[in-house]
Fold each of these.
Amino acid sequence: MSQNRDISRQDSAQKGELVRVFLADGTITYVNSVCCDFYEKTMDEMIGSNLAAYLSEDEREDIIAAIFSMSQDNPEVITRPRFTGKDGKSRYLEYRNRGIFQADGTIVAYQSVGVVLAEEQRLVPVPGTMEVPSKVAGSPHTSGRSRENAPGFFSEQMREIRRQAEMYHHDRSIPVLIEGETGVGKEIIAKLIHFGGTTSLRPFVDINCTAITPSLFESELFGYDSGAFTGADGRGKQGKLDCARGGTLFLDEVAEIPTELQAKLLRVLEEKAFYRVGGLRRIHTDIRVVAATNVDLDSRVAAETFRRDLYYRLRVGHIRIPALRERREDILPLAGLLLNQSARKRNKRFADINDGAARLLLDHPWPGNIRELKNLMEWVTFMFDARHLAAEHIADRLTVPAHYQPAVPALLPSGRGRSSVRIEISKAEVLAAIDQCRGNKTQAARRLGISIRTLYNRLM
């Protein structure tokens, strides 16, 4: 690494250049004084810390994409991120990022030399936008969030899952299998296992096992050497295992991995090495594998469509994410959070959820889980602009089957100075509402804060 330091000091002689040398996991091994001044840190503070701690989210994504696209044939890439300092000013930079390779092609470190290109004016709010407060006084269902209540972690069940994920983060030798229905947030948990609530430059590489045909899966996962098959790139190609070196490979919908490749994946997990398609060189890799599935793998094992030994190897660590209908106490906080996010994106006024809308949200079975809830909030903020999310905004988009058990009153908090809202609507109340609306059942449903289907169910 002394060679790296000598190179860095030589480069830093150029006036005004920021020089950084860091390992594959982001640990800084050298910075020059210009870089320290830019980040307003001392050299002792920066060396040994993780570079990701000093980067904006955009810059971190840019550099991750850049450095993990490097190869010995393409050892240098340029990134042009925007950095916003403590003073609120944004600066554009240009970095020349260069990989330092071992003989076998493994990158041991990166050197990044940058210059400031331009400077923007102090950022000011765009006219017509608004900052939605994290909590609205007197609102029964606010749309705020806190670090403690990150997406999906409101209930005790989800806080326990977060605790488990953070424990798995600290031991990269443990593969983890995440089970849960479509839309429950399996990838969020996988990223929590990878990042552990901190910033890191270790790669997180995902592969959707349902989106790749069996004939292409092997080359996508393992890569291939030149001349491996007809039509192959003459230079060969790195696979996902190469890209994930030092980080996490996330196998989404792992049950769909072709049967003939399951043995090869098992060998990677056990030996930490693989061969590219058409290759003769054994390539060592340091990856953690996190897998996810929305099907019952036990039944796949029993049907002999999924290898039992691979199943047990993937399931060293295990997390099951309950469906949204199994944790209804998460529905309203999640709805408020997603409403907040969508409203901010579209500069809409939505800040909370009224009681009528809350009843509908609690009664809906959410077969699409969090993804369905997010899509609903996106649609609402696209179609409407109001201070409060009301039943009339979502009544026609939600259905409540007759056999579905309504939410219990305790799940619907009462506002200041109000009693708890009753969930059950009697047939007499429905008939009275229809009479008040002169026979218009849609208006009656909106008045009662229920869906039109629920109204008909009450009339039976």
Amino acid sequence: MPIDPDELRRATAEFPTGVAVVTLHDEGDDIGLTSTSLRSVSLDPPLVLVTVLHTSYIDELFTRCPTWAVSALAGHQTAIGGRFAAAGRPSARLLLSGLAHHRGDVSGALVVDDGTFALECRTESQFAAGDHRVVVGRVMRVDYTSARPPLLRHRGGYRVATPPS
């Protein structure tokens, strides 16, 4: 029996996920998107994964850009998550204009400052999975970590994780 995509979307919306911005630098341009798929895969070797929609431009970039950055957003960065999720978004440099960010030493990609953490990665493997591409990256550098409460996506909206008391 086929699964109704809307029913699956409603079901998985019940599971809170962290919100991150994935960025790549390609031929003088900076591209990025909001992702809720960031996962740690392995500590030895240090691997993380993200997924991207096959129809997105960033999917094409992952086939030719070996390095990338991922910035896990903090609760106060809802606007950044929204900017990088918007359809037809411009260059990541424009999306981060006026906001704290820097270029990663290893990846050359833009890194959002003041989040919960940021990583620079080199693609280790990638493969098709339904309508998405799964990209597994070897963590080459932990750019920073912080104790800021993370931004979450839950039930179709952004939420701030409540720190333990």
